[in-house]
Amino acid sequence: MSERTYLFIIGTGRCGSTLVQELIARHPRVGFISNVDTTLAAFNPKGRANHLLYGSLPAALGRRDRAYLKNLRFTLGERVHFGPSEAYKILSRQIAPTISEPFRDLTEDDATPWLAGRFRTFFEERAEAQDVPVFMHKFTGWPRARFIDEVMPNARFLHVVRDGRAVASSIVQRPWWKGYLGVPAWGFGDLPDELREGWERHGRSLVVLAGLEWRILMDAFDLAAARIDDGRWLELRYEDIVADPRSNWERILGLAGLEWDEAFDEAYRRYPVATSRRQAFRRDLSERQIEQLEDVLGRHLEARGYELGEPAN
To answer: Is the residue at 122 inside a domain?
Structure first.
């Protein structure tokens, strides 16, 4: 087999990266870590049967956070799901919690020999066991791309971006978000003076804090992108992926060095892409909260092509 490609899908969380992760995992030439692997972390499974199992399941049973799955859980009284995972439990156990829960982004300076060796071995062993030319993994939160690039210099990165107002609206609704603990307990360290002033100005709003998380992460992604050459880094907006999926999926496969073959085409046609939630934040947030977010995120939103104010009719 020629040299393997390691593809890392990265994003802030609640950015649409799961949609990308789940569909690319259906490509017959792609390996991944499954939620079963991380559940069995103590046994250090390599996921040899992951693609066989995932490919044999109906699309609905390989997707997370969908109404169909919620109905199944209600009916059967348990979680019904098999698919690719961010695998933080097994990453913490087999590499280090440093990878799973850093309070800041990981950079090239964090690639100490022991940590770099564990990280590289972890992914290489699973790619070898699954016998695939492309191994894919998703990280959300900090990009970790500068660290990964130092450890695996040929790795490729797909950065999925979503409107910061939509991300803020979504993460404050998640049970895992620690922002309700305030700063610095929220997991992203202290706020720089400029950001703290904006947060204080808006009454320490939790929605604003969630928006500042997006802004801090966007700055970290920009620093990472500046280090990595364009041929190994692709940034796509979630809104563009769902508006024009075919052309953007061709770009994603191209980044990974994959072809749009018959098997992937079948998976693509069976995987519905919902467009209804692109502006859901306007329903879930008050006008005042949206104005506050635009106050603290304005330049960052406009830099990535998001318009401020009411959407065009």
So the answer is: yes
| 3-state DSSP of the chain | CCCCEEEEEEECCCCCHHHHHHHHCCCCCEECCEHHHHHCHHHCCCCCCHHHHHHHCCHHHHCCCCHHHHHHHHHHCCCCCCCECCCHHHHHHHCCHHHHCCCCCCCHHHCCHHHHHHHHHHHHHHHHHHCCCEEEEEEECCCCHHHHHHHCCCCEEEEEECCHHHHHHHHCCCCCCCHHHCCCCCCCCCCCHHHHHHHHHCCCCHHHHHHHHHHHHHHHHHHHHHHCCHHHEEEEEHHHHHHCHHHHHHHHHHHHCCCCCHHHHHHHHHCCCCCCCCCCHHHHCCHHHHHHHHHHHHHHHHHCCCCCCCCCC
Rounded to an integer, the average pLDDT of 95-118 is 97
Q: Which domain holds residue 268?
A: 5-167+231-281
Structural domain contains residue 156: yes
Q: Which of 54-58, 252-256, 267-271, 307-311 has the lowest mean pLDDT?
A: 54-58
> Is residue 71 in a domain?
yes
Residue 291 is assigned to a structural domain of this protein: no
